[in-house]
Write a structure and sequence with these properties.
Number of helices: 8
GO biological process, one term: regulation of Rab protein signal transduction
Helix content: 40-55%
InterPro entries: dDENN_dom, DENN_Domain_GEFs, Tripartite_DENN
Organism: Falcunculus frontatus (Eastern shriketit)
Distance between the termini: 30 Å
Protein name: MTMRD protein
Strand content: 5-15%
Strand order of the largest sheet: 1-2
GO molecular function, one term: guanyl-nucleotide exchange factor activity
Mean pLDDT: 82
Radius of gyration: 24 Å
Order of helices and strands: HEEHHHEHHHHE
Amino acid sequence: DKEVRAIFLRLFAQLFQGYRSCLQLIRIHAEPVIHFHKAAFLGQRGLIENDFLTKVLNGMAFAGFVSERGPPFRTCDLFDELVAFEVERIKAEEGNPPKMIKHVRELAEQLFKNENPNPHIAFQKVPRPTEGSHLRVHILPFPRINEGRVQELLQEGLARSQGAPPATRGDKKCVVPAGPPVGMFLCS
């Protein structure tokens, strides 16, 4: 599923390439409002007549996208890097499917690493029950839980986790790279 997500990540990076240059910060209100200049975005890319992209930009999902990704100072992620720094690579791979597939696999690997920062911790999947297992009559009832033993295990786990470093990585906020201007992406 990471490769499918990587394909969509590339698609949206291509679709919204240069969107940051069309963001406007309006400071009339107590809280600044970020506005996306749709006409400028479509006009600079030569897509004013494109019905699909116009509907995407008018949708609620895109409004949420702008409100989340509009602030110039926030935590950056893989999408921001693609939009800002991978423009030329994505353009060069358009006519070369093997290079495109290689890039998709690299992105999928990065997505996997982002979701699993500690690869040494293995997660075992619970196997599915066999066919007809619910019909078996020899299933033993679930044993009673020993509350004292549960408390001991919890205390042991807490004692171990207090000395261990935190498993989550800290998201550092940074200035979001603007990337190239929209005019670079004239579409046919």
